[in-house]
């Protein structure tokens, strides 16, 4: 039984290998017909990297400003509702 399973696996691997080779040939043949000059592709890739970098910096600045604004607003709220500050404020107004 083990040898029968081994034979089936080998034939399956051979079929898979031949199918992958045929697919690779088809794709490489199609790519050769649609190929653009290398310089044009490199220029496009260069602009794509700059655009991605710009978007990442813009996102980081936006998130940073939101975090900074939120933490500053929380400090102001915490100062006003702090019991010690409320006591001192009331005490000073009584005197």
- The level of helicity is over 70%
Please state roughly what percent of the residues sit in beta strands, choosing from under 5%, 5-15%, 15-25%, 25-35%, 35-45% or over 45%: under 5%
The run of helices and strands is HHH
Distance between the termini: 100 Å
- The total beta strand count reads 0
Uncertain spans: none
Shape field: elongated
Assign the structural class, choosing from mainly alpha, mainly beta, alpha/beta, alpha+beta, or little secondary structure: mainly alpha
Oligomer: single chain
Radius of gyration: 34 Å
Largest sheet: none
State mean pLDDT (0 to 100 scale): 75
What is the number of helical segments per DSSP (H or I, 4+ residues)?
A: 3
Transmembrane segments: 50-70
Keywords: Membrane, Transmembrane, Transmembrane helix
Protein name: Potassium voltage-gated channel subfamily E member 3 isoform X3
Family: Belongs to the potassium channel KCNE family.
